Each structure stands twice: as structure tokens, then as C-alpha cells.
């Protein structure tokens, strides 16, 4: 099910059928979902998102620095610190791409624990896997290319499941959250780090101007890829806000769900337990 980081070998693939987006699930016959501000056939979203991340994989750290003005590094450290991991625990890092969260989790669980770094995109996963391998994390980090909507793990396998800046790109968020709940041990915790809805009125016009005017231009000038950055900005606006994601996690079976805003709601950490 997962590949140990002992060599740069081909990635395991686990494919899954796409469902309707949770925002469309009230209408069972719906056959479209959103890709940024566009409506696209449900079955095409995974391919379109994959093209975006294949395009930016080599510059993913640069992309995160541009989108967050470098703050994503602090957010991720705070995210894992609030998880309160203990030595020997088991962690599943979904949409882990660059390996940032997996690295921090591996440090926290120590040599007696282990972490699964996963992503649906082969290019992104290869970048993260190779980086962690080069840094010597092979013995305690495993790697698997999997779909967050159909996890190939037994029930109650992990103490913590994380997804950082990845849930907004999942077609069926409700299904992914339900899968996260399924693979958690009783008492286990799911944590979501994601861009969210700004809560400070004075900050909103500044954030909008940066998002829609500056960021796509920077993407064009620095990464030579305006379209991918434009999608990423739009995907943030289409993602459920703090209240909506809290409700979605509760409907997926999580208890004691809460959210914590960072930078006035630019980013939020959502947390819920399996009980």
C-alpha cells in the first residue's frame, strides 16, 4: 500500500472514481463541479487539477511563497505543533506534495513512529519523496500516490490525518473527509490547513487586490504560468469557508470540530476527532 523511501523507484498508484462535488450533492443528477470559477464535468476536474500541479511541481515552494508571502512555512510549523504528536504515533499526510508536513510530523513522532506522505499527483509526490530521501528521512517515511477520496488503508490505521492546502482541490470533499474519519483510530484526529474567508473587513480589499491582480502577474513573470496561479486564487474563493467546512466535517462523522483563524482568516486550521 505504501512505498518506503529507500530509493527513487516508480510510485504506487491507486485510482478511484470521482463523485459529485459536495456543493452539488444536494442535486443527485448534477454532473458538473467547479474548477476555479468555471463549471466543468465532474469527471474532468481531477485531470484539470492534475495539469495545474504537474505544471507547478518544480516551483511549488516558490508558488507557496508567492501565495502566502512566505508565511506558509510558519503556518505549517504551527499546524503540526498544535497536533501535539507523540513519539511512536502514525500519521497520514494527504496531498502532501512537497513533503513539508511529513517532515515536521516525522520529527515529532521520532524513530518509533512513521508517516505516510501521499499525493494524487505523481510529479508533486516525486518532488517531495526525493527531497525527504535526500534529507535522510527514508526509514520512517513511506510514500504512496493515492486519491484522498478512496484511501487504500484499513479502518483505524492512523493517529493523525492531515491535509494542508489540498482539500480545496479535491472533487468530493465530503467523501475525502469521510475516508479520513474511517482510517483514524478511536481518539484520532483529522486536521485541515487551508486558505479560508477573511474575517477582517479592512483586510478584504487588500487581500482581493493581491489575489486577483498581483499574484497571477507574479505567476506569469516568475513561474511563466499565469493560468495555474489564476486557478489557485479562484479555488480559494470556491472553497467552503470556516463555518461551512466545520459543518461538513461534522456531517462526515467528526466530533469536537473547531476552527482557528490565522492572519484574520486568510488561513484556517480545522480540527476534528474520531470518537
How are the SSEs ordered, and which strands pair?
Layout: E1 3-4, E2 13-14, E3 32-35, E4 38-41, H1 42-56, H2 60-68, H3 72-83, E5 90-94, H4 100-109, E6 114-119, H5 122-134, E7 141-146, E8 158-164, H6 173-183, E9 184-195, H7 204-222, H8 226-238, H9 242-251, E10 255-262, E11 267-273
Parallel strand pairs: 2-7, 5-6, 5-8, 6-7, 8-9
Antiparallel strand pairs: 1-7, 3-4, 9-11, 10-11
Helix pairs in contact: 3-4, 7-8
Mean pLDDT: 84
What string, H for helix and E for strand, traces the elements in order?
A: EEEEHHHEHEHEEHEHHHEE
What is the CATH third-level topology name? Rossmann fold
Largest sheet: 9 strands, mixed
At CATH level 2, the architecture is 3-Layer(aba) Sandwich
Q: How far apart lie the N and C ends?
A: 26 Å
Q: Give the low-confidence spans.
A: 4-29
Give me the number of helical elements: 9
Q: Helical residue percent?
A: 40-55%
Describe, in plain words, how this protein is organized in 3D.
This protein is of the alpha/beta class and 275 residues long. It has one domain (12-199, 230-273): Rossmann fold. The protein is 41% helix and 23% strand. The protein contains 9 helices and 11 strands. It has helices at 42-56, 60-68, 72-83, 100-109, 122-134, 173-183, 204-222, 226-238, 242-251; strands at residues 3-4, 13-14, 32-35, 38-41, 90-94, 114-119, 141-146, 158-164, 184-195, 255-262, 267-273. The strands form 2 sheets. Strands 1, 2, 5, 6, 7, 8, 9, 10 and 11 form a 9-stranded mixed β-sheet that branches. Strands 3-4 form a two-stranded antiparallel sheet. Strand 3 and strand 4 (38-41) form a beta hairpin.
Amino acid at each position: 500500500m505504501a512505498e518506503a523511501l529507500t530509493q527513487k523507484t516508480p510510485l504506487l498508484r491507486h485510482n478511484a472514481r470521482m463523485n459529485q462535488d459536495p456543493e452539488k450533492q444536494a442535486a443527485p443528477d448534477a454532473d458538473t463541479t467547479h474548477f476555479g470559477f468555471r463549471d466543468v464535468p465532474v469527471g474532468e476536474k481531477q485531470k484539470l487539477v492534475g495539469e495545474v500541479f504537474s505544471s507547478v511541481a518544480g516551483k511549488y515552494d516558490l508558488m507557496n511563497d508567492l501565495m502566502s508571502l512566505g508565511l506558509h512555512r510558519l503556518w505549517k510549523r504551527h499546524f503540526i505543533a498544535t497536533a501535539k504528536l507523540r513519539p511512536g504515533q502514525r500519521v497520514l499526510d494527504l496531498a502532501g506534495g512537497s513533503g513539508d508536513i511529513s517532515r515536521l510530523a516525522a520529527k515529532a513522532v521520532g524513530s518509533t513512529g512513521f508517516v505516510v506522505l501521499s499525493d494524487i499527483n505523481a510529479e508533486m509526490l516525486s518532488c517531495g519523496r526525493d527531497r525527504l530521501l535526500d534529507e535522510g528521512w527514508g526509514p520512517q517515511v513511506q510514500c504512496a500516490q493515492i486519491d484522498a477520496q478512496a484511501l487504500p488503508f484499513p479502518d483505524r490505521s492512523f493517529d493523525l490525518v492531515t491535509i494542508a492546502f489540498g482539500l480545496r482541490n479535491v472533487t468530493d470533499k465530503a467523501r475525502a473527509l469521510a475516508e479520513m474519519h474511517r482510517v483514524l483510530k478511536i481518539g484520532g484526529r483529522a486536521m485541515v490547513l487551508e486558505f479560508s474567508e477573511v474575517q477582517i473587513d479592512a483586510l478584504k480589499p487588500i487581500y482581493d487586490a493581491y489575489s486577483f491582480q498581483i499574484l497571477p502577474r507574479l505567476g506569469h513573470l516568475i513561474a511563466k504560468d499565469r493560468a495555474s496561479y489564476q486557478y489557485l486564487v479562484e479555488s480559494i474563493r470556491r472553497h467552503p469557508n470556516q463555518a461551512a467546512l466545520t459543518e461538513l466535517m461534522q456531517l462526515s462523522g467528526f466530533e469536537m470540530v473547531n476552527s482557528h483563524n490565522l492572519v484574520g482568516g486568510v488561513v484556517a486550521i480545522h480540527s476534528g476527532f474520531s470518537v
